[in-house]
């Protein structure tokens, strides 16, 4: 059986077998950011959409110098991941700008800060300039993905306008949001559990700090200091676990409620973000 290096070289000579090679590379490319950076599924999907158009160029540039193709592949992925991670951090700032829709739009509520720091979640408003970006059928589909991604903070009074822009019935959009909220309920309970642990630890830490200020006996001071350290560790652990609870719907959950492949949601959100960044921040937008 031919190894991957032989098949890549055969493809370079005959231009045949591309689909089989890409199908074999896909899980390796998709899982690479998780192994190297600990990223979640959605970020891995974004990276795969970013790399996919470059795969053919990567195959063409490989030269057999005694090392397997896998070694060349992971060297390129490491370099591309560093660039992608840097651009992703910059892109989050641009994305925040694009989601801060126009101030003073009629009938809109003031934006609410997201305590989880998730760049996707914002209270939605639909100004005219943003609606003009959603023109084609693909744009409306991608916009629907974005609405569902932000469903945790969508204001119910805005659902009608959002549904009209996405090209679906308002009742259906409300039903989809309700389904995602139901999927999220377990994570909401988990977050509340960690929040209670953090609050109890914080209250106990303040109590121990107060006792330390008045305690003079060395033995009790040592005991209080050790207890305070344990409580602070408990509080930090609870906060770390809170930060890891993902409240926004995952791309897989959005795909499930819509009955579409997860990759469709990954690519739709990826290209919509790029389109918005290009319009809202054209000076700093750098094409891949």
Describe this structure in words.
The chain is mainly alpha-helical and 288 residues long. The chain folds into two domains: 4-97; 105-249, no CATH class. The chain is built from twelve helices and no strands. α3 packs across α12, α7 crosses α12 (262-280) and α11 (251-258) packs across α12 (262-280). The longest helix has 45 residues, at 170-214. Mean pLDDT is 79; it is low at 97-129.
Secondary structure elements and pairings:
Elements: H1 4-14, H2 18-37, H3 41-51, H4 55-61, H5 69-99, H6 128-131, H7 137-149, H8 159-166, H9 170-214, H10 218-244, H11 251-258, H12 262-280
Helix pairs in contact: 2-3, 3-12, 5-12, 7-8, 7-12, 9-10, 9-11, 11-12
List keywords for this structure.
single chain; 288 residues; 12 helices; mainly alpha; 71% helix
Structure in a nutshell:
By secondary structure, the chain is mainly α. The protein has helices spanning 4-14, 18-37, 41-51, 55-61, 69-99, 128-131, 137-149, 159-166, 170-214, 218-244, 251-258, 262-280.
Task: Determine Rg (CA atoms, Å).
Answer: 24 Å
Kindly report how far apart the N and C termini lie.
Answer: 36 Å
Total number of domains? 2
Low-confidence stretches: 97-129
Specify the biggest β-sheet: none
Total helices: the number is 12
SSE series:
HHHHHHHHHHHH
Report the oligomer.
Answer: single chain
Indicate the overall shape.
Answer: flat
């Amino acid at each position: 059986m031919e190894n991957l290096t032989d098949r890549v070289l055969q493809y370079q000579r005959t231009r045949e077998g591309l689909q089989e090679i890409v199908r074999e590379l896909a899980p390796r490319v998709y899982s690479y950011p998780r192994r190297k950076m600990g990223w979640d599924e959605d970020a891995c999907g974004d990276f795969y959409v970013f790399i996919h158009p470059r795969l053919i160029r990567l195959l063409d540039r490989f030269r057999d110098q005694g090392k397997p193709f896998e070694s060349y592949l992971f060297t390129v992925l490491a370099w591309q991941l560093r660039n992608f991670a840097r651009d992703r951090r910059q892109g989050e700032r641009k994305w925040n700008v694009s989601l801060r829709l126009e101030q003073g739009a009629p009938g809109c509520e003031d934006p609410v800060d997201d305590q989880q720091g998730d760049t996707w979640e914002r209270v939605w408003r639909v100004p005219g300039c943003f609606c003009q970006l959603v023109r084609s059928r693909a744009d409306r589909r991608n916009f629907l993905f974005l609405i569902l991604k932000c469903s945790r903070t969508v204001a119910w009074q805005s659902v009608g306008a959002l549904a009209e822009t996405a090209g679906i019935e308002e009742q259906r959009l409300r039903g989809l949001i309700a389904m995602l909220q139901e999927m999220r309920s377990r994570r909401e309970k988990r977050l509340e559990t960690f929040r209670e642990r953090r609050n109890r630890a914080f209250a106990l830490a303040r109590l121990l700090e107060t006792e330390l200020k008045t305690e003079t006996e060395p033995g009790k001071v040592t005991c209080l200091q050790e207890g305070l350290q344990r409580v602070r560790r408990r509080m930090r652990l609870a906060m770390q676990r809170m930060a890891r609870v993902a409240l926004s719907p995952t791309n897989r959950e959005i795909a499930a409620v819509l009955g579409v492949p997860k990759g469709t949601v990954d690519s739709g959100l990826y290209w919509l973000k790029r389109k918005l960044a290009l319009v809202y921040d054209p000076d700093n937008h750098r094409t891949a």
